[in-house]
Amino acid sequence: MATGSNAVPLTTRFVSLFKFLWREVLKPSLVCLDSALVAFSVLFGAKIANPKGRCGVLIGIYSLIYALQVIPGPRFLGIGLIAFGYVGVLAANRAWARNEQFRRQIVKKILDDNPDAKGDLRWFAALSASQLFVLFPMASYQLNDLFSLFTVPENASWGTWIAFTFDGFCKSLLDWSEVFEIHYTEIGYSTTGGRILVMVKRLTFDYVLIQGIVALFRIRGTVQDAIASLKSDITFSISLGKRGVLPLIAVLKNEESRNEFRLAAAEALGQLGDLRAVTPLTEVLKDEEPVVVESAAEALVKLGDLRAVTPLIEVLKDEKDEGTWWGSACSCSKALGKLGDPRAVEPLIEALRHRIDELRKFAAEALGQLGDVRAVEPLITALKDNYRPVRIEVAQALGELGDPRAVEPLIAVLKDKESLSQDVAARVLGELGDLRAVEPLIEVLKDGESSLVPSVALALGELGDLRAVEPLIEALKDGEFSNDSTVVRALGQLGDLRAVEPLIASIKGIGVYDLFDLGVAIALGELGDPRAVEPLSKALLAGESGFMFRQAAARALGQLGDPRAVEPLIESIKGNVRATVVVALGELGDPRAVEPLIEALNDKESRVRSSAAEALEKLGDLRAVEPIAALLHDDNEWVREAAAAALDELKEQ
Questions:
Q1: Are the CB atoms for 269 and 297 separated by under 8 Å?
Q2: CB of 304 closer than 8 Å to CB of 319
Q3: pLDDT, tens digit, 9 for 90 and up, residues 61-109
Q4: Which of 13, 43, 331, 559 could serve as 525's disulfide partner, Cβ 3.0–4.6 Å?
Q5: Is the model's pTM score more than 0.85?
Q6: What's the confidence (pLDDT) of residue 140?
Q7: Within a 10 A sphere around the Cβ of 450, how many other Cβ atoms?
Q8: Nearest-angstrom CA–CA distance, 543 and 105
Q9: CA–CA separation, 52 vs 367, rounded Å?
Q10: How many angstroms separate the Cα of 43 from the Cα of each of 40, 62, 204, 424?
Q11: Model confidence over 145-196: pLDDT tens digits?
Q12: pLDDT value at position 451?
């Protein structure tokens, strides 16, 4: 035995033993019990997503339990069903507790999930807890009938047993009924078993009540914290899910709140997507603060509910103080365009004629989004607007509408050097695809206005008319436009082989012109002419060429399919564009590439290794089987998948 200073106090030993038992026995057992109860709650509908369906299943099961009590049968079956229902109450409440834990982890950003994915089990738990007022009277009656646990008056009825249960519930609430000498029952305790049953009843009420009250206070605290942090972190409120909708609506409607909070509340409501927010958001559209109206309008767009259309239109029509109204009107115009309801067309046409420049601009944009042909003529008229941003939006709107009536007016804008909108008109004419625009576009290209070349060249490329080939080649040769990649792109789109030699001649081969040369390589690959093989091979091997150009050159050589490209590609397989080179060699399918590609399977970059495996799969050479098989144990998942797919294909061959 330890003596003196080495003796361990009895209290310390007891605490150590308790900690051990808690850690190794009690806690794991409680966790298992809790998980079992949560799993059991599934039988009562806890995992059903629809709240009405969930509660309907719960009520249906308890109704069945109660109905079976009336039908004559073995007593122990009835008691067993009551026990089943009792465990169901505990299970439903534990499922709610687990559900709240899941939600708290989302709010704290421990989990990244949808807070409403598992539903809100508050009402489910409350409904299940209310069954105790039926289950306990039934249990008391049945057990007393079997074991005579209580002293029961001769005239006792079903109401007497309910009162007996309610009396126990009152005593669970700080025993207030006994303090005021209020008694609901004449049933007494005659046995120890009866007292134990009453004790279980009171403990159950205490447990359910305490757990519920604690959970509700936690929910309230979490919601308050989320609302308080609206200004700094909107995601906190969004993580509440549908539970946050009503508190957010309260903040939104409170005109005494700071604008920053109301803006954030509107944004959060839009992201939550709950349609209960539609009406409060439409009411806020009448607010005097344009920034609040803008946020509400954007939220209504996210909700996508067409009930918002009429209130948005009313803001457009209800012109009040011009100093603040026009900002709200602009926001509502944007929202109407995005909602896409045809009722907005006429009010927006009226707004297109308004004296405020910005409102006309947003109205034009919205009309383009709506896609209604009633807007074509008003928009054509607005092409002559004295405010350039309006003219730009009008031209773009006509492009979105795609009506051929807009072609001639847009050509007129294209020819008008004073309009300052020629570039937009050119771009829109390309989108419309009407060949009446080809000659006017060529004329503008020949005029030599450098700022218009990108939009004109792109439009000619989209139109696809071969009349544009020679003018574009001339523009390519012109010193002023020779570095304009849009001309190169247009020539590639047109697909005419007359462009091959001029494109080859335009290659700079210097890093500073990398973007231009990139466009040339892409165009040559699209044209597919073998004359491009030699210059592209040369560029691939030239050290002074830019990285993007060499990458595009390798890709183009793979597209061209010429065997002359194999050696230059093999020579550059260890360079900084080797991933693209490997892919190109796979496209060419030449057996000379097998050994270099097998070597590339050991490259330090995973992208090169996976591309090499895919290329060898295309080549179909069985020499590659063993080297590819080694990649099945590669550190990179994509490489392993590519190797497995390649081996499957090679084995079939």
A1: no
A2: no
A3: 999 999 998 888 787 888 999 999 999 999 999 999 999 888 888 888 8
A4: 559
A5: no
A6: 87
A7: 11
A8: 55
A9: 42
A10: 6, 12, 21, 64
A11: 888 888 888 777 777 888 777 776 665 554 444 544 445 566 777 788 888 8
A12: 84
Tokens of 33: 């019990």
Contacts of 167 (CB under 8 A, 6+ apart): 177, 183, 184, 185
Closest CA to 298 of 352, 256, 324, 336: 336
Ramachandran area for residue 561 (φ above 0: left; ψ -120 to 50: alpha; else beta): left
- Cα–Cα distance measured from residue 248 to residue 419, given in angstroms and rounded to the nearest whole number: 48
- pLDDT, one tens digit per residue, over 364-381 is 999 999 999 999 999 999
DSSP conformational letter for 9? P
What is the SS3 assignment for 73? coil
CA distance 609 to 600: 6
d(CA 422, CA 413): 6
Minimal CA–CA distance to 532: which of 500, 559, 505, 555? 500
The one-letter amino acid code at 510 reads: I
pLDDT digits (tens, 9 = 90+) for 608-642: 999 999 999 999 988 999 999 999 999 999 999 99
189 DSSP β-pair partners: 150
Phi/psi of residue 595, nearest 5 degrees: -60, -45
User: Which residues, listed in sequence order, are joined to residue 188 by a DSSP beta bridge?
Assistant: 151
Using pLDDT thresholds of 50, 70 and 90, give the confidence band for residue 259. Answer: confident
Cα atoms in the Cβ-side hemisphere of radius 13 Å centred on 394: 31
Residue type, position 142, single letter: Q
H or E element: which one contains 151? strand 150-151
H or E stretch at 189: strand 188-189
Nearest to 243 by CA among 110, 119, 346: 119
Alpha-carbon distances of 392 from 91, 376, 384, rounded to whole Å:
64, 15, 10
382: closest CA among 363, 400, 369, 401?
Answer: 363
d(C-alpha 625, C-alpha 653), whole Å:
11
Q: What's the token pair of residue 215?
A: 């959970």
Other residues' Cβ atoms within 10 Å of the Cβ of residue 627: 18
> At what angle are helices 192-228 and 75-107 packed, to 10 degrees?
20
Q: What's the number of CA atoms in the CB half-sphere (13 Å) around residue 247?
A: 21
Domains along the chain? 18-215 (no CATH), 402-506 (1.25.10.10), 508-582 (1.25.10.10), 589-653 (1.25.10.10)
**Alpha carbon distance 498, 501 (integer Å):** 7
> At residue 150, what are phi and psi to the nearest 5 degrees?
-130, 160
3-state secondary structure of 150: strand
End-to-end CA distance of the chain: 81
Q: What are phi and psi of 634, to 5 degrees?
A: -65, 155
